[in-house]
């Protein structure tokens, strides 16, 4: 009986606490006025990554392992004419590595593709679309001491 009378009061307190930014902290933490949940490093502003210049090529991340190139093409085709869509896959398993590229025929279509698919669900995962950055150039190799074999840079 006493518990039944407390439930509306508790739910009202939680609702009021949730409406203020630090309300839940006050509700669940006895020393909320002394300590902050944020670390000092989190309070400092980190510089944002520079945005890539607009291009027809989009970088899509957050893909499911089951997403195929055809599924990526179908999802982005509603926003414009697609020249190419490719999901980068693992050589051994054949599954997606979690990212891919979509190339539109025009800049306007690529802007529509970003606006339409960035932060949306595809195959049960939230994906992110942005303009692709150009690949960094590999350093040119100049053989020294008559060594003819170039250095190994990995699987690029």
UniProtKB/TrEMBL annotation:
The gene is LOC104730810. It comes from the Eukaryota. This is Glycine-rich RNA-binding protein 4, mitochondrial. Pfam families: RRM_1 (PF00076). The lineage of its organism: Eukaryota, Viridiplantae, Streptophyta, Embryophyta, Tracheophyta. Keywords: RNA-binding. Residues 56-134 form the RRM domain. The keyword Repeat does not apply. The keyword RNA-binding applies.
